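User: Thanks for the earlier help. One more: Morc S5 domain-containing protein. Can you show the sequence and predicted structure together?

Assistant: Of course, both are below.
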Amino acid sequence: MEAFLENARIGVPLDKTFLEKIRKEQIVKNFFKTTRNKYENPFTAIAELADNAHDADAKNFSIDFYKPYYGNERLEFLDDGKGMSLDEMLTVITNYPRTRKPAGKIGRYGRGLVCATASIGKVFMMFTKQTKEENEVSYTVLMVSHQFHTDYVLNDTIYAPCLSYNEKFELVKTEDVDTQNLNRYIMEQYGPVPISEVKSMLQKIESPNGTLIVVGNLENGVLDFWNNPHDILRNEFQHKRDKSLREFLKPLYLDAKMKIRLRGADIYPKKVCEYWAARFEIDFLFQKSWEEPAEVVTVHCGIEVENRESDGIHFYFNGRLALFGYKDMKFFKEKSKRSIGFTAYVNLNGEKFQPATNKVGFSIEEDFQKLVRKIDKAMNKYYEYITTFWITYTYFNQQYKDQNGEELIELFWNDIGYPSAFDPHCPREPLSSKAKEWNLKECGVWIVCCKCRQWKRDHLPLDPNFKKEKMHCSQFHYGRSRCHSLVSDHERFDVTLREWKIHQKVLAIKKEKAEKEEEEEEQVEEVVEVQGEEDGEIYIVEDIPNIERSDVMEEEEEMEEEPEELDHELWEEEEPEEEEYDEEIMELTKGRERDDNDNFEIAMKRRRDLEDLDEEFPLR
């Protein structure tokens, strides 16, 4: 067997007649060269492997680095997901189109494994474990080596030597001994792990099902494993998320169901809206083409008060981050320094909006630019809400009514601890007790329960004796003896575009009424002054006859009933012209009711929002 490969010269096409029995899949020419270029950032390639574990319903995913004394450095990725059979393992390396993953999954066709591993190293070995209903355990080992295909000019076919083991870690022998020996020999020569260590690698999968991926022959100089024993770095970058893999993975998912561990230390997830103030929600209908039905897009807006460098628009697909802090849009260019801290996130349906192959950005640029224009209008609406209503009436309690938008924003930043309002790198000063109280009330304290793995919002400061990584629902201030819910707490994006319109009209009515009362008082004063001059005496306030209160009482009653009437007017005025939109919107809004005590009221608000096709967001 050894003579077969030793007699084959490196750089000369190998006689493939003997290799026909090895499991293989047809691929496009120069497959490895093209796939390596799909992941320019090695962090995105590692995130792709995390996505595979997430789609496999894994609860734990770990990343480790090893430098054995006998060989090259390697990375190991271990999860406790569903595992794979031999046929499933071979399916993930094929380049042919295949059945799509179920709706809601992050991946689409499962092609990311080979592409991601090829961009990190030149060989990967996959160990998988499956436990059947009869408690029968089976292990499978598969290897794909870029170097093997390069050495023997194998450009149009990907050869994947594979071996099977039983629950006692014994090799399952086949009838074709020669083929099995050839598989063992290729793995021994090109694998990142010697065949003698296969048993110890399989023993690392302690769960009933799971997968271990080992990547060897790592790219030299791309990743730094030495300066931080609990992280992987890219030293040529300065921004935290570009430089540190730990920071890169923190906001990767909206949910926290999968615990990620990097080099022996857990990665505590980051909730993207954890430190957002003035939370605001805008819904609009987005239609990619006339033939396709419209899709509801929800923009969750806020002001980042803790880390202002993390502003911009964050795009998620099925709860997985694709673009972080996007600012190439009119809103951020025109507002410039006034837009510091303004942020938003959208969670798009991966079936309707297709992400790029490497999960960075969109696959169709035209759809992305069209969506950006819609979001740009939404951000301008949010900016108007902040500068004309929220800062003046909510934060400062009706102070500074005469200030313009930029002055109000500067006053707000200064008041919450930023001496330089428009410098994104300005550190936040220590907060006063009043500012701490406001910060806690507005943002809350978000913690992942270590048992149910759901986001929970507490309303009081954390107990310093508790570690966030080990807290569970019973330790919260509202806690119970067990996890009280299987869903995350509501993020409190309670203010919508429709509600703000009602606030605007109510304020306009109040202003009009105040002006009218002021005019009446001026008229009464004029009458008193004229009468006093004629009679030669001056009236004091008590001498003025009482004004009849009937008209004023009627106006106050109308004022109390006005919001309901306004709601009815908005419903009628902004109803879609065509009746067919009503059925379409009803279909789009199915299942969007929130699991909360006020879910019925919130659902009705959302129903009215979607029927309120504002002139700022026309469907056509």
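User: Great, one quick takeaway?

Assistant: The CA atoms of residues 130 and 209 lie 5 Å apart.
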